[in-house]
Fold this sequence. Notes:
Elements: E1 2-8, H1 21-30, E2 34-41, E3 58-63, E4 66-71, H2 81-105, E5 110-114, H3 119-131, E6 135-139, H4 145-149, H5 158-173, E7 176-179, H6 185-191, E8 206-208, H7 215-224, E9 237-242, H8 252-260, E10 267-272, H9 278-287, E11 293-297, H10 304-309, E12 313-316, H11 332-339, E13 344-346, H12 354-358, E14 361-363, H13 369-380, H14 384-398, H15 403-419
Parallel strand pairs: 1-2, 1-5, 2-4, 5-6, 6-7, 7-8, 9-10, 9-12, 10-11, 12-13, 13-14
Antiparallel strand pairs: 3-4
Helix pairs in contact: 1-15, 2-3, 8-13, 11-14
Amino acid sequence: MRxxxxxxxxxTTPQTGPMLRHFYFAQCLQEKDMETTxxxxxxxxxxxxxxxxxxxxxxxxxxxxxxxxxxxTSRYKGNGISRVKNMLSFFFGLLRIAGGYAKTYGRPDVIxxxxxxxxxxxxxxxxxxxxxxxxxxxxxxxxxxAIFSFGKVRMDSLAGKLLSAGEKWMYVHADAIVFTKEGDxxxxxxxxxxxxxxxxxxxxxxxxxxxxVKLKEYYQSIRENVLEDPDLEDGRFRxxxxxxxxxxxxxxxxxxxxxxxxxxxxxxxxIFGGGSQLELLKExxxxxxxxxxxxxxxxEKKYIPYILSRSSVNIxxxxxxxxxxxxxxxxxKLFEYMASGKPIISTVKMGYCILEKYQCGLSLEECTPxxxxxxxxxxxxxxxxxxxxxxxxxxxxxxxxxxxVLTERLYQVIEDVEKN
Length: 420
């Protein structure tokens, strides 16, 4: 049996968190006789929880047959210096434990280091050189572009130039690069790093494997995890948002759109989720008489598939200014929305648009309440046959992003680097 190592600082098991991309890949690759081990930090991202390694450098567990290794790292809180130390401790922890782990459990045949931050991918390249095996770099977030776009570091600063140089080194020394957004390969062209622009990166080693959804579990959840809620059964046209309610999610824009649609008594907005702005927005809705919005508060994730399946239209509510959407979308929420078999409205017009490709939703050119209200009315007034076609397109399109399909694409990457 071949051995494949996946390094991802923030990966989780179903028991420890929601970051399950690599757990699902590992499950599916096991079925192809490829033992896949996931290495993650024992400090769980954003939850504040810790997996106890009992004082040892790592803890190895078997989660539904998947070997999962939690590497002991330093504690952190927020996005300050303690988080940087946590990143460094994971990087050095991987380098420190790899040799002993390989002696005990077997050497890897291929290693994949996955972002968010690039230190994990750099560790993957260094370990691959140590074991003399191919290295795959997986880019789920373009660093440092994301840092530049948030204005935390300037691209032309010394720190910015060093970060870009490290990113370039990573791409040059990888045997394959996997992007989760289809348009991320454009970044290499824009930087002039590809061979056609005189650089050293052959774009033939770049691949696209998006995020997705495990459809079998998703539809099982709809059947088994029913949320008893009369607002999901009342026959109205239900505009559904699920997610965190905080400034970056701009949920206030939904209230503005709802305010414009108060003349349509059969349209109701259902907002599921908690967050720092929940009480503020509830007070605003009451004060301004926005009575076609119902705040449902936090619900367990297991109920989300059922909620989405009971909507009339699902809203992907993004900020247009806080992110570069020209490269596409790799949001897990998008594929859950598609799997629900209901039309989707995105508040952002994206490049490489999946909604457009599969004809399963509408996108706003401008994220204004007026534009959102207009798109909601388009779907509300849509002839039954056209609505059913858009809904079916969403459900069919989701099949291309089932993890069994995505794993086949990743498996092809692995085979390609082994051949070369």
